[in-house]
Amino acid sequence: MSATKRDAGSASGEGRAPRREPSAFKRQAYFALEDVRRGNAVARFVGIALFALIAANAVLVFAETRPGISAGVSAVFLVFGLASSVCFALEYAARLWTADLVHPDLGPARARARYALSPMGIIDLLAFAPGLFVLFVPVSASMLNAARIIRLVRLIKLSRYMRGLHSIARVFHKRRQEIIAAFMVLALLTVTASVLMYEIEHPVQPDKFDSVFTGMYWAMTTITSTGYGDLVPLTAAGRFVGFCTMLLSIGVVGIPAGIFSAGFVSEFRAQDAHDRRRARHEDAGASSDDAPDDPSS
């Protein structure tokens, strides 16, 4: 009797009902949005169609800016943009619905709030909200142009499907201390060179080097080897500062590049090792499932 009570107490000790298993439809919706390879044929089709729709909207951004577009083609672009807004709204609703599968450690309400307030959740919202807003609410031409500009955030949705962008984000996170230090050195060189160049060249050509910010512009074009040629030192001291800036920039600009290269190599090796371990684990699981049962058991 006491053991039964203990079991009942442990089952209700958390004070909440156990999480229910998601339905097959919800799980396939999750696969279509997050992991197309694990979904069935319909989920794979939906995931690929979403990617194609985002890519088509990226092309539409450039196609709409061409001059001389006929009224018929413009109407087709408008209908396609509105249809895309509806599709992205449905995607946003589906992502809210499956957020508890993305964050299984949180409750459904907290998981959905976490997605809605995340950067990608805000981007997903902006991908369709302006298009539907101008559809139902009369707006001026300036607001319509603003909605078209905001619609550019749809291009960011492509980052979900690009492994390289995720690797870049992880490299930034893991090597953030070294990256910040490298850019601080670059900023120190830029500020020093801009102040020196302004103090030296301003008395000679005040119309060109009229402020320290102009000197900073010269320093950035020099350090990055852009060299537009619109700002050129005339004095010997200014040319010496320019020579030292170009010489130091060879090493200073190469520091972040080296950090990024080492981080990418380390990240790709770690990802490849993870993929191999996952493949071995899946092969071992498949082998155990195919093995015949022990007759002695």
Automatic annotation (TrEMBL):
Transmembrane segments: 41-63, 75-94, 125-147, 179-198, 240-268
Residue stretches making up the Ion transport domain: 45-267
GO molecular function list: voltage-gated potassium channel activity
Region (Disordered): 1-21, 275-297
InterPro entries: Ion_trans_dom, VG_K_chnl, Volt_channel_dom_sf
Keywords assigned by UniProt, alphabetized: Ion channel, Ion transport, Membrane, Potassium, Potassium channel, Potassium transport, Transmembrane, Transmembrane helix, Transport, Voltage-gated channel
GO term, biological process aspect, one: action potential
Membrane topology reported for the UniProt record: Multi-pass membrane protein
Protein name: Ion transporter
Protein species of origin: Eggerthella guodeyinii
